[in-house]
User: Fold these one by one.
Assistant:
Number 1:
Amino acid sequence: MENSFVAKIERFDMQGGWHYVPVPLALSKPLEYLAVHFGFIAVTAKVGRSSWATSLLPKGDGTHFIALPAKVRSKEKLSLGAEIEISFEARKKQGSRVGYHMARGMPPAEPRNNYINPQMSPAVSHANSWSNCRSGLTAESLI
């Protein structure tokens, strides 16, 4: 199913910041079950005559955005602040756990993230995630 919306091109405020369009929550929220790897949702985006494989990327506040590559901006003559019509369609990533579960009629697997644990410092959390490796690094060895 293709989703289409009109949005203003924005840019992240940092040197080399990406140009992007924010995706309305009404369009991204129903697709969150497809999210893999830190909340990325695989899509094919289209602006004008250009289409490209990309992802709905999480902004960290519950919303998503679509990055606009320089080659697309150049080809379609898009500039910062311009309002554009953009459409996207969800695509299934090769080898994703979501595809495995959906094909069997099961709910999608919960994303695993062994690195981030708000109760631990990053160093201890990192050590715990690698505690089974040959180096023998454990959280206790860092304390």
Number 2:
Amino acid sequence: MVERKRAPVGGWIFVLAILVIVVILLSIWYFWIKLKVPSTCDYNSSVKTYLNKDPKCSLNFLCVRGTQGFKDECGCGCEEVNDTPIGGQRDVHGCLGPAGYSWNETERECVREWSHAEDRYQVTNFITCKDAGYPTTMSSPKECMTPSRRTFIENETS
């Protein structure tokens, strides 16, 4: 009888173990590079809520009222919107310009020129209405109308 030589079992196990270790290390390296997150990401921010921590995410979601979608190097999600009320900006005199107020040097106060002109110019007849700059018609007799819809007719006393 001829004896057969067997291959050493320990050699194959060693090669298999090395191969498994290499695959594990390559997997760790791949996922570390692929999913690397910058160290500056604050996922516990009170202003931003991250819905996806992948920097390649897409904005395919809706945010609740008072927030808006954002995308940055850390991912994407919803962030609070600045709650400055519309019309809350004041000029150097403290007048609310978006609300129609402007500084009147003569009266030394914030006024709505378009709403108080009638009172300031004491519109009482056609001539004072026309002098205050309100529109007049071309009809005969001519008419002048104030912003408060008071109408004055030429050559007519009030």
